[in-house]
Structure formats: structure tokens, C-alpha cells
Amino acid sequence: MYRFLIFLIILTFVSCKNQPSEKMSEHKYTNSLINETSPYLLQHAHNPVDWYAWNDETLELAKKENKLILISIGYSSCHWCHVMEHESFEDEAVAAIMNQNFINVKVDREERPDIDQVYMNAVQLMTGRGGWPLNCIALPDGRPVWGGTYFPKESWINALKQISKLYTKTPEKAIEYAQKLTEGIKNSNLIPFNNNNDDFTVADLNSAVNEWKQYMDFDLGGHKGVQKFPMPNNQQFLLRYAVQSNDAKILTYVNTSLTNMALGGIYDQIGGGFARYAVDKKWHVPHFEKMLYDNGQLVSLYAEAYQATKNELYKNTVYQTLDFIKRELTSNEGAFYSSLDADSDNAKGELEEGAYYVWTKNELKHILGNDFEIFSDYYNVNNYGLWEHDNYVLIRKENSNEISNNHSISISELEKKVTLWKKTLLKERAKKDKPRLDDKSLTSWNALMLKGYINAYIAFNEKHFLDTAIKNAMFIYNKQLQENGSLNHNYKNGESTINGYLEDYATVIDAYIALYEATFNELWLNTAKQLTDYTFDHFYDAEKAMFYFTSNEDPNLITRKMEIEDNVIPASNSIMARNLFKLSHYYSNSHYLKVSKQMLGNIKDRTQQYGSGYSNWLQLMADYAGNYYEIAIAGEDALNKLIEINKNYIPNKLIAGSASKSNIPLMEGRYTKDETLIYICVDGACKLPETEVNNALDKINTKFSE
Questions:
Q1: Which of 110, 106, 96 has its CA nearest to residue 71?
Q2: What burial letters (b/e) apply to 161-190, b meaning 16+ CB within 10 Å?
């Protein structure tokens, strides 16, 4: 049995890493997915495969018919998901095998991350890797037997036949293996309670970073390897660590990473915004889908990096990315859509990855005329930017002065040309078939983008950034926050659905705290506290001192997971631990602080071994390891004082404030009529208040103590 499963696992090929054809008035096939709202599920509604959505009725059907469940998980902008659909799921012969032997279930991983977590864990245990499309075959009760990612058609057929034969002839072998695999999934979820309550020190941070250095690409930025993922929470921690440790090498590494990302093909040089990842080590060629969660976090990263470095490239990257979000991923209600597909129709009317974003030389010559030569130097329309099929990905180098000299043009004239080129090419690109839009709005991803807008406002004091942030915060408050205090996860076609996951609560709490810090509107801080208390009631395990990913009101899967490892998005537990740390200061709540510290203690050993997988936890460790400042501003001029403070990069602080008396514990007794005072406090001990921002800032040390 074991050898047989290993043989099938070898059939696993490429995937979209964890990293429709022409519209027809009539369809030969229509399955039950036609009743869903998920764009990904609707993409499969006219496959000959008898797809079902994941629900109680589907699971009962599998048990009733004693059929294996074929669980296929992906998302709407996943390139390899489209490839497998075209090769296998649109094929009638393949569909016949699937329909005869399995209950076939399609899952949108973005709508149901809880299901994705369980079966991704299973496939990773079986194969040592994961990605999407994720295909897993389970017993009628949901326990997994076999799985992998993308399969070519013949490999897929072969695997299906063998698994079906195994279950028909010797079901006891499949059941035995599923039993062992399910135990493995449950055991991989165990997070021991750490009884050692040692303090967290700068030495711990140094140790984690020193171990991490062997994986850093100091020449090109990012993680060593052929593919490059932005990993914003990695860079945010390392930026902070570099500043607080006065580590010039790490700061150079962060700047190298951010510069190469912003100048490379992973960044849309014409329309703004970042693609999911680069398929090469130089950040040149992107995997072209654009995800909301990447762009939200990258806006936060570049805004903070600008505060620390005053690098104009970082500022321009923020502004252009937010232009993209406003233009292509924002609804009239102020909600943010999920993603844009990697694929779109090429000139031949065929779906092709990147077709919307790349250019041929002939196209550019025709569009730009006499400007082509200087344009091709600026954006490397040469061997440096050549991709495939005579298509070019536009890539920059930090060479404006060189181009200015070579073409006898001033920098200001060059900048005017660049602005005109972008406007012209954006207009030309709009004539192409656009990538498909995933127009569902996910609460957690909206909160990440919300925080991006807040961080951009804090860094640049642009009122329209704050206006957009408040509109989105109100969307979440009015549409996704339910009367019983819970959050819903999904919003589509005016309907709020799917009981929220811990990631929804954690990210919204984090964003609402940030919005309070930017506006001093106590609605956001008080709502953050209310949501936190709700998570204790419905997600918290007091015995483990950690939070489950799913609510205790959700239907049971084969196990209840805890998300602890920071990935492309930080783990919901690490975000919650940081939220609790901040809220403990605002509300003088010792329970919040105790839980936050215990959560970090549970994870501490892992942070020392694999810093890049626990970088948001390391942010919290840095809060504990050095001085952490409470800045309280009270008085009529509080917001103007805040704007001055926000010009500075101060990673080891939180801010509270009010223009009048406030009932928030951190602000009690701070207000004095007719003057605005700034209080700087550490561990409950406060210096004498100041009226001038510069004098207050002199009392703050962003460096770690020796």
C-alpha cells in the first residue's frame, strides 16, 4: 500500500505555489456549481465533471453512496488550475471516470481556507510539497487517502483508476492509510504549552537573524532560490531589526530587496501593483496574477520603508500601487476585490499567461514612435527584458542619470516622458482583453489592504488615502460585522456570507487599531477590543494558550487547526498575539498581556530555527526585548502633533490621543484644557509631558539597548 501511494505521489508536477474560454450562449453541461457565487467555482460550472460545492448535503451523499470524495482546491487567478481544468476537467472521458467513481467537490481556497489547510497539510505530509491546484482523494467521511497538486491528463487518469480500484478491491487498506494520515495531520497541529517563562532578549533576535542569513540573497534580495516571493512580513521585521540593531548589512539587504522588487518585472511598471511572485531569481519575470493581500501588505512595507529611508522610489511605488487598487480592485461600496487572473486572451483569442502585461518590439515601436529608443533603454526592451515568444517584460534599472546623459535629456524631461509613456501604454493596454477579475471581497484581505491605506496615510499625510481607509473600515463595520459580534468572511453581490475565521478577526483588529492610531476615533479601538473578546469566547484554547483557526460554531472537519507559521500572510495567531500586546497597553489589561507573552513563549524555539517562517512573531519579540513606548497626545492640537510624529520611523511604539477627555485607560488624566501635551511612557513609567514634538521625540530611542 505504501509503495503504491508513493508511486502515485511521484506523478505530482508543477502548481501555483503557496505560493474560460469564449462565452457561449448555451452550454452542453451545467453542474451544481452554477448556484455558487465564487468566481472560481463558477469557472467550473459548465465542466462535464459533476462538481459539487463543499456542504453537508455533499458529504452526506458521499456517505450514502459509499464513494470516495475527490476534493479539488484552487482559486480563480491560479494559472495551473486553469491548465488542469482545460486538460482534464473539460475532457468528457476524464469526467466520465471522475463521475463514475467519485463524489467530486470543488473548493475555492480563498472562501474556505479551513478546508484548504487540512488537505494541504495532508498533501504536504504525503509529498513533502504543496501548491494549487490541490487535489486530494478522501474516504466518504473526509479522511484523506491520497493527493498531489497539478497532474497532466494521462497521469491523472492513471491515478484515478488505481485509487478507485484500490478502494473497490481492498477498502481496508485505504481506510488503514487514511487513519494513519489523519493522525499525522492532527499531530502536526500540536503546539506544546511552554512552561519556561524566560524573558525575550535582543540576543534571541540576533540568534534568529544569524541563522536566517544563510537563506538571504544579499546580491539580489529576497530568499535564495530560483523563484522569488515578496514576503512583506519578512522585510518589515528585518527593516525594524536593522534600524533597532544599527545593522548596516541587514538594512542594505532590505533596500536591495525592495529596490529590485520595485524595479523588476514583478512590479507592473505601467499600471502599478505587484504580481504574486517572480519565476526567476532576478525578480524579472512574474507569475502574473495580482493578489489583493500581496499589494495591501507591500503598500504597508514600502510606506514604512519610506519613513525609515526617505527613498523616493518607495514613495512612488506606494502611490502607483494605490492608483492600481483604486482603478481595478475597488468597488463602489469601498470594498476591495480579491485578485486579477494571470491569464488573458492573446491576439489569437487564446488564454495566455501574461498576455495583458507584455509587449513586442513592433507594438512598442508603433505606439511610441521616435521615443522607442529611449523607452527601450529605460525599460530594457533588450535581452535583459526578453521573456518568450518575442515578448518583453518591462524592467527598470536604477540608471536614470545614465539614460539622461546618453540621450542628452534632462532628468526632468525624462520624468515627463515616463509619465506620458505610462499614460499612453495604459490606454493602449486597455484595448486588450483584460484578465478576469475575482470580484468577491474577503474580510481578512480587505483588512490587509485597509492597513496598507492607513500606513500610506501615516507616511505621506494624503487625505484621500485616509478617506479610502475609512470608507473600507465602514464597509467591514456595516456589512461584515454581525449583530452577535461575529464577523463574516465573504461578501459578494451584496450578500455577506461564511462565518469568519481567525484570520478575519486578527487582521480587522490589527487594522482598526492602526486606524485609531491615525485618527484617534475611539470607535475603531473599542471595536477592536470587542472583536478580541469575541475571539476569546469562540476561538481560544486556554489549555494551549493559542487560538484555533475556526470558530467553535463552525461544522467540524477532520481536525481543528491552529495557524502559527508566518507565510505570505502572517499567521493569524501571530497577528492576534501582537494585537493582544497592544490592547493590553491601551486598556491596562493584564490578561491580554499574559496571553500574548505565553503565545510567543510557545513559539520561541521555532523562531530561533526558522526566522523567515516566524518573522511576525519576531516583531512581537522585538516589542518585548527593547523599550516599547506609549505615546499619548492630549489636547485640541493632538492630530497636528500626530502628523509631525508620523514623519519618523518609530517601530517600537503605539500611539493614543484625543482632543478632549477620553475614557480609554491609557488616556485617563492626560487632558489639560488650553494646551496639548505629549506623554512618553515605558512600562507604566512616564517622563514629564512635552508641548513640542521634537522635545518628545528626544525621549524616544529606536535602538536596542546594549
A1: 106
A2: eebbebbeeeeebbeebbeebbeebeeebe
Measured distance CA(368)–CA(425) in Å, rounded: 9
d(CA 389, CA 288): 16
Three-class secondary structure of residue 631 per DSSP: strand
E-strand ranges in 501-596 read: 540-541, 546-547
586, containing H or E segment = helix 572-587
**Residues shown for the chain:** 706
pLDDT in tens, 622-651: 999 999 999 999 999 999 999 999 999 999
pLDDT in tens, 493-518: 999 999 999 999 999 999 999 999 99
Q: How far apart are CA 490 and CA 336, in angstroms?
A: 11
Per-residue confidence band for 231, with pLDDT thresholds at 50, 70 and 90: very high
- State the pTM of this model: 0.93
| Separation between Cα atoms, residue 25 and residue 22, nearest integer Å | 10
Terminal Cα-to-Cα distance of the chain (whole angstroms): 58
DSSP 369: G
In this structure, are residues 289 and 341 in contact, taking their beta carbons and an 8 Å threshold? yes
CB 638 within 8 A of CB 520: yes
Q: Peptide bond before 570: cis, by omega within 30 degrees of 0?
A: no
- Please list the residues that pair with 386 across neighbouring strands: 392
For 523, the 3-state DSSP assignment is helix
DSSP 679: E
What is the side-by-side order of every strand in the sheet holding 677-682?
653-658, 629-634, 677-682, 685-686
Tell me if 284 sits within 8 A of 290, measured CB to CB: no
Structure confidence at residue 706 as a pLDDT band (50, 70, 90): low
* CA pair distance 56, 505, nearest whole angstrom: 25
Residue 137 grid cell: 482523494
The closest alpha carbon to 676, from 634, 645, 640, belongs to 634
- The span from the CA of 645 to the CA of 194, in Å, is 38
How far apart are the C-alpha atoms of 88 and 98, rounded to whole Å? 10
- Give the integer Cα–Cα distance in Å for 705 and 245: 9
Give the integer Cα–Cα distance in Å for 124 and 115. 14
Residue with cell 470516495: 68
Cell of 462: 494624503
Alpha helices, H only, 310-378: 312-328, 361-368, 372-378
Q: How many Cβ atoms from other residues are within 10 Å of residue 383's Cβ? A: 7
The values of phi and psi at residue 561, to 5°, are -90, 155
Q: Which residues contact 258 (CB under 8 A, 6 or more apart)?
A: 221, 235, 301, 302, 305, 314
- 3-state DSSP assignment of residue 336: strand
Checking if the pLDDT of 11 tops 60, the result is no
Amino acid letter, 123: V
For 579, list phi and psi in degrees, rounded to 5: -60, -45
**Cell of residue 573, nine digits:** 495567531
CB 181, CB 6: distance < 8 Å: no
Rounded distance between C-alpha atoms, residue 681 and residue 586, angstroms: 12
Instruction: List all residues 6 or more positions away from 50 whose beta carbon is below 8 Å from its beta carbon.
Output: 31, 32, 95, 98, 99, 104
Q: Which three cell numbers stand for residue 12?
A: 505530482
Whole-number Å distance between alpha carbons of 399 and 381? 14
Q: CB within 8 A of 163, min separation 6: which ones?
A: 8, 68, 137, 145, 146, 174
